[in-house]
TrEMBL record:
Record organism: Pradoshia eiseniae
Placement of sequence motif HXTX 1: 44-47
Keywords attached to this entry: Hydrolase
Pfam families in UniProt: LigT_PEase
Claim: rRNA-binding is one of the keywords in the record: no
EC number(s) per entry: 3.1.4.58
Protein name as catalogued: RNA 2',3'-cyclic phosphodiesterase
Chemical reaction(s) catalysed: a 3'-end 2',3'-cyclophospho-ribonucleotide-RNA + H2O = a 3'-end 2'-phospho-ribonucleotide-RNA + H(+)
Keyword Protease part of the UniProt annotation: no
Length: 187
């Protein structure tokens, strides 16, 4: 079967952060059952999901981001607790909460606007910065137990992020997200 690649822009997490999140996932796997767990190299914070994309649109979005990233310095994020998307008792997505910062929102807006200007149609739901850890719960979960479990996980220190990455998805590989272009945030 010939699958089309999907593309997205994301904040790349430092390796130390990926290791700590993988420790969280390993501990959580002992308590909750999900169909798939994300490969640690695939942990990221999505800024704009593009889906299948034309080469010209990708090129234009990359050019705009390269121009507009100037003046956006690296940003610090704090990862606190767990959250879910989907049905409360049978979540579709388990995620680590990447707390919004004053710098993250303008960076996200810059990337989002560049993609719109390049001709992409993007999701209009409110931005919820998160790091997906697992997909498709196999059992019922009491939402309160997930919140409590997230509070028991060891703290992850603030993380410095300075890379926006354009990723291509390859569902036949692990890790499945391949970096296509990188944009360093620097003042």
């Amino acid at each position: 079967m010939n699958r089309r690649s999907h593309f997205f822009f994301a904040l790349e997490l430092p390796q130390a952060c990926k290791r700590e999140l993988n420790d969280w996932a390993a501990r959580t796997r002992e308590v909750y059952s999900f169909k798939t767990w994300v490969h640690p190299e695939d942990y990221h914070i999505t800024l704009a999901f593009l889906g299948a994309a034309e080469e010209e649109k990708l090129k234009k979005a990359c050019e705009l981001i390269a121009e507009r990233k100037k003046g956006f310095g690296s940003l610090m994020i704090q990862i606190k607790g767990l959250g879910t998307f989907g049905q409360k008792n049978s979540p579709r997505i388990l995620w680590a909460d990447a707390e919004e910062t004053k710098v993250m929102l303008p960076v996200r807006r810059m990337v989002y606007d560049a993609c719109l200007e390049a001709g992409f149609e993007l999701d209009t739901k409110p931005f919820v910065p998160h790091i997906t850890l697992a997909r498709r719960s196999r059992n019922n979960i009491e939402p309160e137990s997930m919140i409590e479990w997230g509070r028991q996980l060891p703290a992850i220190e603030q993380q410095k992020i300075n890379q926006i990455v354009l990723y291509r998805t390859d569902t036949e590989k692990l890790p499945k997200y391949e970096p296509i272009a990188r944009f360093t945030l620097e003042e």
